[in-house]
Specification:
Elements (H helix, E strand, L loop, with lengths): L8 E2 L10 H16 L4 H19 L6 E4 L2 H11 L6 E5 L4 H10 L6 E5 L10 H6 L4 E7 L11 H10 L3 E5 L18 E5 L11 E5 L1 H4 L39 H17 L1 H21 L17 E4 L3 H10 L2 E2 L1 E3 L2 E4 L7 H15 L2
Parallel strand pairs: 1-10, 3-4, 3-5, 5-6, 6-7
Antiparallel strand pairs: 2-8, 7-8, 9-12, 11-12
Helix pairs in contact: 1-8, 2-8, 3-4, 9-11
């Protein structure tokens, strides 16, 4: 099902998962449609809408509350420029992916608001009471990662949501490291905005991102970054009027990434067929095993030791991480470097033997 696994151990799902044959075949489906039909807008839009509906099923929302953009950077920028932030404050955490802070700072050129970053502690985690400490009644938007891309620290979204909303702020969740491997229910958790992309645990490819916005909130926002697919009727071709679509659909922009949508549609089929609950249970087992194995080998782990606050990704300190990543690849082990750590990030197609071999190889390389 995953051809690359015949020759390599793929443990990079925090960056790019292995590609399944059925998912790769979606490229051919799109290519053949171009060769035989030339243009087929009806099928193209069906694929795009399938992606919205299947992602909505995974996070428990209405498909109308899901829009498609190209990256999480696009998503956060669109949200920021749709809000009136003058005189307000926005919060992020030091564990957020850089594009979150970068987009906030860039938006300050257009609006006058303060940006603050919630610090992480010595364990690369954020205590819950830090949110109480940093938040004020002037905080308009609070951006957090469900899972840290660096340490694999997983946060309790429902508890954070309660604090955020008690202070009158909106909650923006970056779920790029958790969508597909962890339980997410945007209604139960009372999440206002959630974003992710496809190439990590959702088994797809780069170039397509999904943004959920609670419909009651979305209808109050007017995105300055828009396009014909963000309008009530894109095929009306109305040049002289701006008629935003309802709910999150107003955050669509130009022509969607059609080829990526073909792939995403099939990738989400695979995730749904296996089941996120089953994936989460299995990956927790691999995660716990990885922690024990790393300790046996004397490796320095920057991830939480408590599985209840840890994602499948295990961050191991190695120093020159890019060099170690390259050496691992030479040995047919695909992992992902970030700063000074190597991230061991299995998916449901991996085994304990995969994790053990990767960690043993890491130990060997950093001991040289």
């Amino acid at each position: 099902m995953f051809p690359i696994l015949q020759n390599k151990i793929m443990l990079s799902s925090c960056s790019q998962s292995a590609m399944a044959t059925n998912v790769l075949n979606a490229f051919d489906e799109y290519k053949n449609s171009l060769l035989t039909d030339g243009m087929d807008w009806m099928t193209w839009m069906e694929k795009v809408n399938n992606v919205k509906a299947k992602f909505a099923e995974i996070i428990n929302c209405d498909p109308s509350e899901v829009a498609i953009l190209s990256s999480v950077s696009d998503c956060i920028s669109s949200v920021l420029n749709a809000m009136d932030l003058d005189g307000k404050e926005v919060l992020a955490t030091e564990l957020d992916f850089p594009c979150i802070g970068q987009s906030m700072l860039a938006q300050q050129h257009k609006q006058k608001f303060n940006v603050s970053f919630i610090e992480y502690d010595n364990n690369y985690t954020i205590p819950l009471d830090s949110y109480e400490k940093y938040m004020t009644k002037n905080t308009a938007l609070t951006c957090i990662p469900h899972v840290s891309y660096y340490s694999g620290f997983k946060q309790n979204l429902k508890e954070i949501s309660e604090i955020v909303h008690a202070n009158g702020s909106l909650l923006f969740v970056d779920a790029y490291q958790s969508a597909g491997n962890a339980h997410i229910d945007v209604k139960e958790m009372n999440i206002d905005i959630l974003v992710t992309g496809m190439q990590k645990y959702l088994l797809g490819i780069p170039g397509i991102a999904l943004i959920y916005i609670n419909k009651d909130i979305a209808d109050q926002l007017q995105p300055a970054t828009t396009g014909w697919f963000g309008q009530v009727n894109p095929f009306e071709f109305n040049l002289t009027e701006l008629k935003y679509a309802s709910s999150a659909q107003r955050f669509n922009t130009g022509t969607p990434p059609i080829a990526n949508a073909y792939v995403a549609d099939e990738a989400l089929n695979t995730v749904l067929q296996v089941g996120v609950p089953q994936i989460e249970v299995y990956l927790n087992e691999l995660s716990a095993f990885g922690l024990v194995k790393a300790e046996e080998l004397g490796l320095t782990v920057y991830s939480p030791k408590d599985i209840s606050i840890k994602a499948p990704c295990t961050a191991v300190y190695v120093g020159d991480a890019p060099e170690i990543e390259a050496q691992m690849k030479e040995r047919n082990i695909i992992v992902s470097a970030r700063k000074d750590v190597i991230r061991i990030a299995p998916h449901f197609y991996n085994t304990k033997d995969d994790v053990a071999h990767a960690l043993e190889t890491l130990k060997e390389l950093i001991s040289q």
